[in-house]
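Hey, can you fold this one?
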Amino acid sequence: MTAQAHRSSAENSTTLKAKAIRHADFLLLLTLFAFFRFGSVLFFRPGGYTRDYSDLIFYQSRASWQDFGLLPYRDYWSEYPPLFAWFSLWVDALARRIPLWEDERLWYAAIFGLCMALAETVTLVCLYWLARRLHGEGALRVAWIYACLFLPVYFLGGWYDALPVATIFLGLAILVRWPGLLGALFAGAVTGVGGLLKLVPLATLAVVPLAIPRWPARLAAGIVALGIVVAGYAWAYLHGPLMTLTSIRSLTDRTGWATLYAWANGYTRLGKVLGGVFDPNATIAQYEAIFPERLFTVGWLLLGGLALVLLWRRRAAPHPPQTIVAFAALTYTVLLLAYTAWNPQYALYLLPFIALLWPNARGVGYALALTALTLVEHPIYHNLIGPDYAPIYRRLIDVDYRSLFLAIIVARTVVLLALALDLLTLLWPAWRRLRRLSPLLAAAAVLGIVLLLPQFGRAYVAGRLATSEARPLARFVNALPGDLPVMAQQLALGRQLRPLLDDPARLHLFGGRPGRIDPLPQLATGPFLYIRSGNDDPALVEAVEQQYGCPERQPLDRWELWFCNGMAAPLVARFAEGIELVAVTAPPRAADPLQVTLFWRATAPIPRDYTVFVHVVDATGAMAGQWDQQPAAGESPTTGWQPGALVVDEYQIPLNARGTVAPYRLLAGLYDAPTGERLAVAETARPVSDGRLEIATLEAR
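Sure. Predicted structure:
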């Protein structure tokens, strides 16, 4: 080796050492970042308790079909672009080489997640490099703000958006670093690969006129990017023309969800792509659009195009890095405002821009607002609250949970508009007076959701009450006098039932180990209700029977209610034909809808099918609401009642309180539908008029 070569090698070593020292803090952060991401993939369950494995289960399910020789774009169509569909096949093929763990998803999830973590690491490196151009020595703040964000970690192992996000920021870094033909070609290639994963990265081409000064290079970037996407689809078409065309149609024919556009068209549920994937003629749209959603999409895109033209004409390319990054951020914000569908993971496309452009309290505020709204929507709303309950449960929920979904959509849209406005003030300093408006809009949107948190809580409780096996038990106990103790042995029953009671403290568990009856003797100083389960300790059951006496017993679903220590079984009224109204649960105040539960019992077989009516009348006797049905919405006709068994009869009564005068009286009874003749009330302590029994009094709403 020559002396000159030795000097060159020494200089390179010195340069690398100097760079390592200069970026030492970032290298430490990068090491911890990568280790944390990789560790979270291996040791956290994607989606947590509320949605185990998230979309990952669909990715793996589709990929596993290759065991039958079925491949995407050849044997079935896919809503995912070709490169991701093939990537998922590769992950599944690699995972199948490893012996199965107890959960068969482990190795697919681990390999998939490690790839996502690697993509996240690429994103962080690109962010740091771009931040050096934008903020100089303050670049490290950008890196640690992004590293500390929760949402990218949450979506890391369950969705694949980390891959296209990495291509977006790698493409931006290349455009800023090499604003010439070579940079245009490399950026176009990266963008094209991103477009084959998800079409969204193709929007990066919008900044090419601002970053690249010459038209041949600009055209080269677009040609390379679009050429790669076309080549990918062409390859798929050669192997499966029909399914490839259907896959493309799944992108163009799908309707929106979780946006104001979809809501205006009457679609208020979580979105998905419909149709059997083996059917090339499958219907993709989820609803018939009332107005042309794509017209609004085109309008937003035209506004984005106008902003590009104005920036392009303002000065010659290349523009400063901050302008390029800010316009890219504006492009993706406008794209999300324009698109008729929203998935929670779309927030991942904006969070890196927020950290990069506002590495301060302003940016952290935007990031937290977007994160909070994303998590409130999914998993809190879509998983903890609903709304996809079966019809049998939906009629039991007395909260308008779909209005909460609309509130989330409006709040998220306001935050996106605030971001777009703030980005415009970065691009056009003359508008800087509007900078104060943007955070105020975002804060107002989040505050609106915070104020609705009690409603979210009510919706959750109503949904759990509607779907719980212990619902009839809870409704019956709530109808009993509030000072009456309720006893049970089973811990699982106690944890399920207690939160559903108006007074949770009235429920007491006894036992806990074989032969232990405490604390029942200390609590049972008077009448009490014992809820007997089938797996109760027989010795304790015998002790309760012998020591306290429980002569009256009534079956309710899979439990048996024992009325002990001198407690008489409740009774509201006796009707003719041996029908008894045992208990009534109704709210203290009028509500729309009004949720009422009636508990019936037959003392003998009933010869006819009677219809139950429930009327709500105001202080003047005017009707404010009514509902007629065979018991339990027709599922428990009176001729099928078993003597002695309790029948749970639920009602959701639409209430029209306009022009009425409180208080309201709740009246109920039965009648023979063919003749209209009401069943007589034989015995009750409550007021009766014209066969209508007054079962409750309600105050004003």
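The longest strand covers residues 594-602. Let me know if you want another pass with a different chain boundary.
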